[in-house]
Amino acid sequence: MGAIIITFLTLQSVEYSRPWPEEFNSPKAEWTEVKTLNGYKYETNSYLIIADQRIRKNKVNEIATLAESVHRALILFPIQLICKDRTENKKKHVVRIFEKESEYFKSGSPKGTIGYFDGRTEEVRVLLNHLIEKKNEGSNLQPRQRYRVLTHELIHQAMGDQFHALPTWLSEGMAEYFSAMQYAPGRYRFVNSSKQIIDHLNVIWLHGKHKTVVVPSIKTLTIMSAHTWAKDNRTNERNAYAKYAGALFLTHYQMELASRNLGGLRGFLENSVNNIHDHKTKSVRFAPADQAMLWKDKSLNKIESQICEYWKKKGLDLRFNGKINTAEPSEK
Predict the structure, then answer these.
(1) Domain span at 43
(2) pLDDT band at 182 (very low <50, low <70, confident <90, very high)
(3) Which residue has the higher pLDDT, 284 or 48?
(4) What is the domain count for the chain?
(5) Is the residue at 330 inside a domain?
(6) Is residue 326 included in any domain, yes or no?
(7) Residue 163 included in any domain
(8) Which is nearest to 11 in space by CA: 259, 242, 184, 218?
(9) Measured CA distances, 322 to 176, 210, 295, 300 (Å)
(10) Could you report the per-residue pLDDT of 269-286, keeping only the tens digit for each?
């Protein structure tokens, strides 16, 4: 195996000695292949990848390396993105890859999705033809070999109890944040993240053509339940990604703009973990952490203005709308 390469920014957290990661390059994962009656199984150290057809060796190398990198990337951060008492679980994570869309939906994956993390079974499911980004017609942008959809769902899976405990926008925003930061299977760059995010949005949503981006307001995003989020995926298929983009902008704000000390976010995540622990060990009803601590008494309108000003300097005209947006990003 190759060596793990991790470099760090010099800026350190006030409360924690661990610095903010700058880059992470995962070693190549080892795996074995077994033919089954219904397809193939690929087993890594932590994952069981089940496919209904044989996958080329170079693609298995990439998928296996990506899968093994996710947990390691999450624990680099000096905040509790993973509940620590869960990391000792020796049960392997399951990823199912489907060639046929009909079989993907038959497995229980919701309409309007191309990848799905089933919180009940704790399995990730994804369509084979959506593992790799394709080159968009009429765009000079090259396809990104970074398995965006798979990365997103694997982050949900790796976060485990935190996935269920956090507000929907933050769970989805974290998954999109790590999808944007990964530029090759198992390789993440956390510096110059704004460029990474703009490139990510151009590849998967804007296609390099749109100058104005409209996303739901902070108020709208923060009250959306998992049910409302899933419903919008089904009914607003043309622009369902707007809320994911909004969640990504808010997560970026919390991770990098609000304060690198991450006082609000750190406290929110720790509160969430404590609530999970009390729910499991003391059989008390789970109480979601109060989102107000994330914003530190700032008005949401002011935060929206700050976020828009930041991205305008990066060349992106961002607008927050008061409701779930049904229009496509506008062109100028």
Answers:
(1) 5-321
(2) very high
(3) 48
(4) 1
(5) no
(6) no
(7) yes
(8) 259
(9) 22, 20, 18, 12
(10) 989 988 888 888 888 888
Cα-based torsion angle of the residue sequence 248, 251, 256, 259 in order, rounded to the nearest 10 degrees: 150
Residue 332 domain-assigned? Answer: no
Top pLDDT among 12 and 37 is at 37
pLDDT score at 135: 55
Report the amino acid identity of residue 201. Answer: L
3-state secondary structure the chain: CCCCEEEEEEEECCCCCCEEEEEEECCCCCCEEEECCCCEEEECCCEEEEECCCCCHHHHHHHHHHHHHHHHHHCCCCCCCCCHHHCCCCCCEEEEEECCHHHHHHCCCCCCCCEEEECCCCEEEEEHHHCCCCCCCCCCCCCCCCCHHHHHHHHHHHHCHHHHHCCHHHHHHHHHHHHHHEEECCEEECCCHHHHHHHHHHHHHHCCCCCEEEEECHHHHHHCCHHHHHHHHHHCHHHCHHHHHHHHHHHHHHHHHCCCCCHHHHHHHHHHHHHHHHHHHCCCCCCCCCCHHHHCCCCHHHHHHHHHHHHHHCCCEEEEECCCCCCCCECC
**pLDDT tens sequence across 124-146:** 999 988 886 665 555 554 555 56
Per-residue pLDDT at 17: 59
